[in-house]
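ok so i was messing around last nite and threw this chain in just to see what happens. nothing serious, just curious
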Amino acid sequence: MRYFIVSSAAMLLSGPIVADTIEVPSDHLTIQEAIDASVDGDTIAIAPGIYNEFNVDTAGRAIHLLGATNGKGMPLVFIDGQDNGTVMRCTSGESASTVFENLVIANGLVSPAGAGMLIHNSSPILRNVIFIDNTSAVGGAVEMLNSSAQLEQCKFEQNWGGFSGGALYIGQSSAPTLTGCVFEGNQSSTDSGGAVYSDDSSPIFHGCIFNDNSATDHGGGMYVTVSDVVLNQCVFSNNYGNLYGGGLRSESSDVTISGCQFQNNRSQGGRGGGLYIDGGSLAMDSTNFSMNTALSYGAAMYVGSCAGSIADCHVANQIGGFAIFTVGGDVPLFERCDIEKNSGGGIWDIGPAQATYEDCRVVNNLGGGLFTNRSTRLINTVLCGNVGPQIRGYWIDGGGACVDFECNDVNGDGVPDHCQSPTGDGILQVPGEYSSIQEAIVDAGYGDTVLVGPGTWTVSGDDTAVISTGSKPITIRSSHGAAQTILDGEAAFGVVYCVGGETSATIIEGFTITNGSSFHGAGMYAESSSPTVRDCKFVENHSVSQGGGLYIMDGSPL
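result:
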């Protein structure tokens, strides 16, 4: 049925201007027949039903394909390719004047690419379009090349890509914008990008959801290479990458992430449960990571040789290897990030560039707080309550850094009390006030003295050394000298343990250190640390490998 809109002024000057609405199936039985009969500006209104068509081609026309919906806005028009080839084609230079709306595109099957829809050298608008059960080698549902298409409220479900991009492949300098789109249950069976694969392109994703997608190789939710990608207010959940990047893998790309969520993603290969970034740059803010899994490194994120900044992020309850793993020549600046309650440790930083954490909290992680070999710089940053070393390796106090065994904060200012003021009178008596030396060290404030009385002191409770200084700038001194004050490893434990970048402000004075037993440094193990050791005797300590009495690695104890 045709509807005419006529301008009276136009009639006087040049005759009527006609905008047609062509109805399917009342005017034409098939969608392709209706397209062939259309001209620019027409609307093709498609009634509810299943249309068994493939290779439906808009052929460059500026038209609006408008499907019927139910009362909730769900499309009632199903275009079924019946596994005969690509369902829809938009490859003739179409612009935003070509609109696809309220359609379900299903069961496309083609060997090369884009079984649901090919968008080549064209930039149409897709609105409320659902792609389901489409299969091809690349871009199971859609292949987009040299395109700035706009996708609004579209859904990609259970599409399959044999190689790259289970749902969507973006390439050849494309710059699409996707808003409010959902990618769910898509799969890349032999390569990368379970839902999306971007190559040499600049896509923008706003408010999109990536859920339960998988890739045999990398990037369960998304894989990007040599691209400039923006993710804003997106959610990556329950995605799986068999190798690297459960949620997202980026390679040599510039990635901007803002206000996103990465949760319950998994990297079976062991790196980057939430995301894996290698090369390029990363600008990330206000993004949360929770319950992501990596068997080796970076349960939340693996960042390799990548410049940029990470700010206002929350990283909690990751499973597996260190929540954050950074490696390589370029390292992002971390600002105002909370890294807490992760099961495999907080952060692992390895060289050569210096990493900086400013106004961050690394607390209550199982497996340690920060492991570093690159003189990590801490500014107004707190590490406390971690099970394992708070810090292992050299670090630089850029001002306001606090490292403590406990996170007690009576005044509620966000800084553990021991980092701000002495405990009591600043002298902690063992055994007068504390039953073990380690108990006193844990309770000591910066600058305090742990004063140890005469006797033989051994490992207490679940500790693994008689003394573990825990990066604290404190003095541990005997009251009666080495002859009367003995630290005894009982031939089962190391005696003194310093691995947290201790400086000369950490002082151990006046002890006999004996009967230590460990692989290295049975009497004293000093790694990346330079404490002051005075008037001590090392007697009958035994190591399996090196340094029976004292083992020093990357340190200069005095």
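not much to say yet. Residues 1-15 have pLDDT under 50 and may be disordered.
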